[in-house]
Known about the structure:
3-stranded mixed beta sheet, two-stranded antiparallel ribbon, alpha+beta, about 45% helix
Amino acid sequence: MNTPIWAEELIQEAIEYRGSKIKPVINWTEKDRTYTTGTARTPLKKGKEYIYKNRKVHCVKGCRAKISITAGTDMEDLKEGILHEVAHILSPPYTHHDRSFYRIAWDLFNHFELDLEKCLGREGRYKNIAKVEFNYLRKEGKL
């Protein structure tokens, strides 16, 4: 199934807003259910070393950024899911739902004017660090 143009534009606008030039591969499917799910793969450069679980890892072959979305019927949840996956490809390699990831995610949710309280409910069920970073950014006046 082809990715809707509005979704491609949202992904590219979010990437450009964060100052990146990544061009992810996008896989799009739709399901007759309320909520959206997704996965993402951070781009890796061939021959570069990365830190993974406190060890250096050498990348033998590179990989492109990739976002896979299974779109549900709730439009706001869909937009949050898309931006959540964009935050993954913009995060440092081998990070996953940590403070650096949520700093990017909350910035995207805020910039694209999502209902932050609803996002907090969804993201907070997923990981407690989402709540911690949300509260920190709000206290700092960044949300």
